[in-house]
Amino acid sequence: MVNPLARKLESFADLLPADLDRLDNLCADVHHYKAGEDLIKEGDRPEEVFLLLKGWACRYKILPEGSRQIVAYLVPGDLCDIQIFILKEMDHAIGVLSDAQVASIPKQKMLRLFGESPELFRALWWSTLVDESILREWLVNMGRREAYHRIAHLFAELWVRLNMVGATDNNAFDLPLTQADLGDTVGLTSVHVNRTLKRLRAERLIDLSRGRLRLPDVGRLMEITDFQPNYLHLERRAADVQKAMRL
Amino acid sequence: MVNPLARKLESFADLLPADLDRLDNLCADVHHYKAGEDLIKEGDRPEEVFLLLKGWACRYKILPEGSRQIVAYLVPGDLCDIQIFILKEMDHAIGVLSDAQVASIPKQKMLRLFGESPELFRALWWSTLVDESILREWLVNMGRREAYHRIAHLFAELWVRLNMVGATDNNAFDLPLTQADLGDTVGLTSVHVNRTLKRLRAERLIDLSRGRLRLPDVGRLMEITDFQPNYLHLERRAADVQKAMRL
DNA sequence: CGATAGTTTGATATCCTTCAAAACCTGTGG
DNA sequence: CCACAGGTTTTGAAGGATATCAAACTATCG
Is strand D less than 7 A from the beta carbon of B197? Predict the structure, then answer.
């Protein structure tokens, strides 16, 4: 199996074999987590960087009255907390949404990597900027789109991101999320998520069951929700996405 | 006048006089903008970094049907687009909300600065991480708080951020935003913003008129909206904020 | 003082939530 | 292989929050 982080970074830069080795070297210490466990909690002071290899995780915050807002999904190839070296405390938690494999990278190892390969440093910086860009797009999604387009847009994004790391198959991918998880992501009730999924299904835009989502017509889905992939900054993959949109 | 960027960074690090000089040196090329102008548009390939010295600006996106979502406010001391060196194209625009003074910093100058002072590099990196953290909190705000708390939370945040750069006076500060601007920020109609402000006024939580916002009781405002300042990562200013909250 | 942008208010429609119950899975133990 | 338990999905009915539309009012500025 190809390292999903390497695969993702190749969307940005053409990496040397030596750098690819360095990325593999990051995955020395792999841990298994069960759905529902936390990698790290709000207020913690992390000592390591996590790299998600398999499964899904999310960044989230819990409000005092108990409600949860998911502010990011982590899919294979996603890193968390390069910022460790700079910020004192986590301002949010990271939890695992499905069973998952996670590599723990000691911060010294990470720092050494930065020193050894400026090219990798740039590529990793790129990936944090993309994360930030996704946050902005999610804000647009929540602020300006109603439930139907909001969920459609999220699915389109997930398709692109998973496709980028080779985690899609025939326009389908694993989506191990409950409707409550989805609701906590897009700012809706699980009831309303349910009714919205029903409508998307009825219009043959999605086919979701048993933790697997198929998008029978990615192009139409993207058209309907006005999905502009520019915010993912796939400099070297723009053509692939264009092609999918035309399908 | 003290350089507002220096003032902000001092919330994180204790800077040397040489570094303070370097920051002043960034402000060599100041331009004046009028309310409504854009610093940079979506799709542009920026060649310089902007530092806002006076006035307000925002990051925003326009959807195809014409609606606008503001995804960040820039206040004095805020930088935009350090990412310039990495990303090819802007995925959003930056516009000026009031008349403003903006320093243009050529990217070479910025790169040189990074090389000269690792401490400043760290501090500037910190500020980008705080920007990202603010995005996450805005997402929580939109996803999980109703209009009343949403707007109150925004005002509390703005008070802390402006206080940090010395732009508040007696719990009041300039807020040169229309109600439509506020609506585009928090995902509400200007009509509903209006009704919500009315309620906040009636409860003596705000006093807003002629572009100036006074918060008669910052502590109570923060309490009501459950404002946790941790996401601003004011390592060296935590005590000040605590004090304000108890007022 | 008139023009223009911004604010305020009212009436009505829509989207989404809440509450509650039924139906459906999926895994487990007998 | 069946029965059962717990979580998840689905559906209905009713209420609440926010949007929409339209008009009146108020600042502000040349």
Answer: no
Q: Tell me whether residues B59 and A136 touch, CB distance under 8 A.
A: yes
Nucleotide nearest to B210 (CA to C1'): D27
CA distances from B152 to A64, A82, B146, B156 (A): 16, 32, 10, 6
* Residue A51, token pair as written in the block: 């790299």
Rg over CA atoms, chain B: 18
Q: Which nucleotides of D are covered by protein (CB under 7 A)?
A: 7-13, 17-22, 27-28
B226 to A64: CB separation less than 8 angstroms, yes or no: yes
CA gap B26, B103 in Å, rounded = 7
Distance of CA A111 to the CA centre of its chain: 23
- Three-state DSSP class for B93? strand
pLDDT at B81: 81
Residue A190 Cβ < 7 Å to strand D: yes
Angle at A136 between CA A83 and CA A90, to 5 degrees: 30
pLDDT digits (tens, 9 = 90+) for A164-177: 899 999 899 999 99
Residue A89 has pLDDT above 70, yes or no: yes
Integer Cα distance of B237 and B104 in angstroms: 29
User: pTM above the 0.90 mark?
Assistant: yes
| Angstrom distance (rounded) from CA B105 to CA B113 | 11
CB B200 within 8 A of CB B190: no
For chain B of 247 residues, list the mean pLDDT of each consecutive stretch of 10.
87 93 94 94 93 96 96 96 87 96 94 93 94 98 98 97 91 96 98 98 95 95 95 84 71
The H or E element that residue A83 is part of is none
